[in-house]
Amino acid sequence: MRLRRAALFLTVLIGFGVLGVVGPTSVPGSLGGPEPAAAYPLDDGYWLAASDGGIFSFGDAQFFGSTGGLTLNKPIVGAAAHPFLEGYWLVASDGGIFAFGSSAFWGSLGNRVLNSPIVGMAATPTGLGYWLVAADGGIFAFGDAQFYGSTGGITLNKPIVGMAVTPTGGGYWLVATDGGIFAFGDARFFGSEGGRPLNKPIVGIAASASGLGYYLVASDGGIFTHGDAQFRGSRGGEPLNAPIVGMALSPSGLGYQFVATDGGIFNYGDSKFFGSTGNIRLNKPVLGMALRPRLAVKIDPYAPTAGQVSDWVQTGAGDWQLSLAYTSGTPAGARILGVEGLFVSQLGKLSYAVDTGSCAASGLRFVVAYDTNGDGTGDGLTSLPCTLGTTIDPVVAGIPGTAVVTGLDVVNSTGTIVIDDIVVAGISVADWQTYRAAA
After folding, report:
1. Which of 46, 82, 360, 380 pairs with 105 at a CA distance of 20 to 30 A?
2. Which positions ≥6 away from 168 have C-beta within 8 Å?
3. Going from the N-terminus, what domains does the chain have, and what CATH number goes with each?
4. pLDDT per residue over 124-148, tens digit each?
5. Cα→Cα distances 247→258, 269, 288, Å
6. Mean pLDDT score, 73-94
7. What is the pLDDT at residue 431?
8. In the sheet where 97-101 sits, what is the strand order?
9. Which residues contact 255 (CB under 8 A, 6 or more apart)?
10. d(Cα 130, Cα 150) in Å, to the nearest integer?
């Protein structure tokens, strides 16, 4: 069956501010068509970025390229990881953008005269855009990033050094070196360090997992928490070999880690240590870090054709549900992206909730395409109808757990059925705005 991308899609993110999926990045023309990659690494990891664009990857974060061997017009000052695909962006102080892996180029300021240099960047939750922030608080939005305001026309006490985005992507915070906070869009103000004496300047900000708070980190490793952000330790008052330049929240939101200019890593809460460059001689100092997310899934309805309509519909309560209506021709359905390259066993239990229609009277089913011999041809195709239950373990249903997933669809070929709470690989699609791990 031929699949075409529909205009509306749903994205689910696990972790804050960083990445996802090994496997094909284009939508295949037919189920089972994509060539599988190596099995998806399910553990965490992180990247460190240096001012020459050198990238150092640790844990299950993969190396996708760098500018370490290039002559740059201006130094790299910021990095952001794709929120659910494998890739990252680097930004230079002149606003030049360098995209690697699955991260797409959405524009840059490399050929524009700026009032103040760029000091950082952040990706949108969809991965289809990014913001750049300048030292004067000027904001530059690209792709699907929206402009919600800036301090570009305001006289600041101290320069801006970083930004953080709300989980919805509908707002952002800017932080200055004195700990001053500027909130825009749906970002709420929970307090600041502006006006308080600091031992060392603030160098970074991270939003709490809920978006109802934020952390500020100073160059001596001191931590300042606001809103629901929880203090889990700091380096304030302890000697450092090199100053702290950035921080990142752990995927669960129950920990954080700092990075120093020598690439030293300091972990608190449940954040994991995977290595550092603290004992390596670097060509240029490290300027920041980005975490790799564990996994994310995008559910893309088939484009409507004669005899079928596949689309997201919104309820009166604001929830989004997947409606699959079939009368003839090509079945209605949706492609579940982001699982290509997983072992079938890593899919876990596949499930959904039926909201409208009858499971027994429909042709609703998961369809799993997989490769059993490693040649990348997608030699297996198994339907898992809802008559087996709305929660199905594909391995129990007979698919080899060591087979590599090459495609996964949810399909209906009888009548109309509306479903939601789709769970794949432990990720629950609750609605358009809610991103959460399945219980």
Report:
1. 46
2. 125, 186, 211, 433
3. 10-19+296-437 (2.60.120), 45-292 (2.130.10.10)
4. 987 889 999 999 999 999 999 999 9
5. 4, 13, 7
6. 90
7. 36
8. 76-81, 87-92, 97-101
9. 232, 249, 267, 268, 269, 270, 271
10. 15
